[in-house]
Specification:
InterPro entries: G-protein_gamma, G-protein_gamma-like_dom, GGL_sf. The protein is mainly α. Helix content is 52%, strand content 0%.
């Protein structure tokens, strides 16, 4: 995409992106990291990677054994 654009168009696009980013409110990492940790801990009970998947609901479980004749 950038190959087809002039330097002026690229700079204009970058300026527009920076103007969008400046409007974003910023939060300190100390606050957001705490919120993320709390959310992860709250969701842990429903996480199949932590809790596991019941054998009867596992879509990847082999339906039958392999029979070699």
């Amino acid at each position: 995409m950038a190959r087809d654009m002039s330097d002026k168009e690229i700079l204009k696009m970058e300026l527009e992106q920076l103007q969008k980013e400046v409007k974003n409110t910023r939060e300190p990492v100390s606050k957001t990291a705490k919120e993320i940790c709390e959310w992860v801990e709250a969701q842990a009970a429903e996480d199949p990677l932590i809790k596991g998947v019941p054998e009867d609901k596992n879509p990847f479980k082999d339906k039958g054994g392999c029979i070699i004749t």
